[in-house]
Amino acid sequence: MLFLLWFKVKQPESIDQKKLMEIWTKEAEAALSAVKGGKIKGLYKVSGKREVVAILDVSSHEELDEILETLPITRELGHSVNVDVFPIHPYDNFYELMKKLTK
User: Fold this and answer.
1) pTM score
2) pLDDT tens per residue, range 2-37
3) InterPro entries per the record (predicted)?
């Protein structure tokens, strides 16, 4: 199951810029490891914003929840991280569906 995740990070007033970058570095290390492991299919930083877009391939909704709850940035920043989650599927699958529905 593919999901597009859009992470929006707000810096809490209780931490300084250096601490935020330390937390984000831990998150980046975990994310890049997941890319190498194949769990993350795409990972992009939104230029000029504290936002990251990821495409994950998970086996269930529960696995997605587990991943989101165990991310370093989620554990350390909690409510300061907003994640929009969108289920997605390959466009060629959609194309095949359109061909089937138009017959």
Assistant:
1) 0.88
2) 999 999 999 999 999 999 999 999 999 999 999 999
3) Dimeric_a/b-barrel, MLI_dom
Q: What integer pLDDT is reported at residue 32 of this predicted model?
A: 94
What range does the domain containing 41 cover? 2-101
Nearest 10 degrees: CA dihedral of 95, 6, 44, 1?
-40
| 3-state SS track over 10-53 | CCCCCCCHHHHHHHHHHHHHHHHHHHHHCCEEEEEEECCCCEEE
CA-based R_g, the chain, Å: 16
CATH number at residue 58: 3.30.70.1060
Please tell me the distance from the alpha carbon of residue 38 to that of residue 76, in angstroms, as a whole number. Answer: 24
